[in-house]
Fold:
Amino acid sequence: MHFLAKFDNEDSEINVRLEQHDERIKALIDGRNYELEVSFPEPEICLIRNGTKIIEARISRQRTTSNFNVSIGTDSFAVEIIDPRRLKPNASGHGPTDGSVELRAMMPGKVVRILNAEGSQVSKGDGILVVEAMKMQNEIKSPRDGKVAKIAASEGATVAAGELLAVIE
Structure:
């Protein structure tokens, strides 16, 4: 996966390959390999173990699924993760206004609920489906007003990172 990450409005490109096995994750970030154990003992609390080092991160999601506030110790960061496969921005940088939009899984997980069926009219921000990844449920929302043209995954299905979940027209 290739992401653009903005930390406190500073752009950083991140190349990530994730493999998830239970709570263990293998990640390739900017050419460096990491084998991590990740757990969420409480909502918004993430424990990351890298060898003998354990990091506690408090992660709170802002209004959209790509904006987060992350606190590690006394440091706090505003983080925006942009997946170029998910949305192709228009000239204003706010995503497509016409044509189809593909919604894809950001990481491996399981579809636990479909909130809007094919053919449903949706508004920007309406939930389309819910994917559980790393014991957290993530609502995948419509990036614009439109119609659900396709639901590509069924409830209970396991999905891979980057896999097509739905199409909005």
The chain is about 0% helix and 60% strand. The two ends are 25 Å apart (CA to CA).
